[in-house]
Amino acid sequence: QTMRKVAFIIIACLMGILAQAQEPKEHLKFMGIELNGSISDFQTKLQAKGLTVSPQSKLQPTGVRVFDGTFSGEDAQIVVWYNPRTKKVYRAKAVISRYGKDLVEQLQHSMERKLDAKYGTEYKQSDEVEDDYLQKFMQYSYLVDNGTIDLFIVSTGYSAQNNFFLHVDYKDMVNFKENTQDEMDDL
Description:
Elements: H1 2-21, E1 29-30, E2 33-34, H2 39-48, E3 52-53, E4 64-71, E5 74-82, E6 89-99, H3 101-119, E7 124-130, E8 136-144, E9 147-155, E10 163-172, H4 173-185
Antiparallel strand pairs: 1-2, 3-4, 4-5, 5-6, 6-10, 7-8, 8-9, 9-10
């Protein structure tokens, strides 16, 4: 009788662990659109939100498409990655430009507050980084159940009075892994 109870408790604990280890029920969303499905479907949904395919798209390698529009009320370029064979979308990011380090850091702080409000801070990580131009910035990662969201700044020179770019980068956990595995199969 006691052994049965112990066995039952062990089995229940194992089932609980396995249930937590399963893949998430839904994919990470970018601009309210799941990072899943074909690039054609994803493009249609972005265009329904007013985005247009950027002329920059033609300069990108296969598996990357660029759009112009707005993200969270800011003019932005939207970059979408998809697997060239399966056409499945696995990553998307918004890139927002600002002239001057102070302005891009203010924008980053504003975006950080929005991400904190939406995703919480429980699994948020932060780190100070220094780029090739000796510019120091904070970068943030939100490790959510179905992927990661990275918030970081890229500079274009040594001066604080240059163009800077804020990146808000979303990677769907399941499709990102599938794409990586597909690339590894080539090796």
